[in-house]
Amino acid sequence: MPNKMDLHSWAVCVRDFNRTLRPSSFLKFRLGSRVTEQTKRTFADLEVMESANIKPIAPEPGLTRLVGAHNDKLFLAEHRMAKGYVGSRHSHPHEQVVYVISGHLKVSCKGRSFDLRSGDSFVVRGGIEHQATALEESVVIDVFTPCRSDYL
Fold this sequence. Notes:
152 residues; mainly beta; Jelly Rolls; six-stranded antiparallel sheet; three-stranded antiparallel sheet
C-alpha cells in the first residue's frame, strides 16, 4: 500500500498534467497537395493527437492514411486499404513495424510473399523493397523510425 507521500506526489503530478491539457499550439501539416490544420498538444516529453482532430487523407486510390502522434524519432500512422488495393513496390530509409488490426494482406519482400491477418505483424528494415496488397478491406498500424517527415 503506498504511503501518504506517494499518494500526494501522484496527485500533484496528475493535477499538473491536467493543467497542461489545453492545446498549446496549432500545427499545419502538408498532406499531399493540400494543407490541413490539426490540433497538436505538445508537452515537455509527450504529444497527444486526439482522433477527433485527425483528418484522413487519400495519398493514392484505395488507401486512406491517418497520421497519429509523432516526434523526431517515431511516427505512427493508421492505413486503411480497400479490398483489391495494390501498393507500389517501394523502399524508404525508415525502419517500419506493421501491425494488422483487421483484414487480410499479401506482403512481398525480397522475393518472398506471405499472408497477414488480424493480429499479425512484421518488421522491415530501412532500404528494403516491399509491397502490400489488400485481399480484403484491411486496417494496419504502421510505426516508423525516424519520423516520416514526407508524410507530414
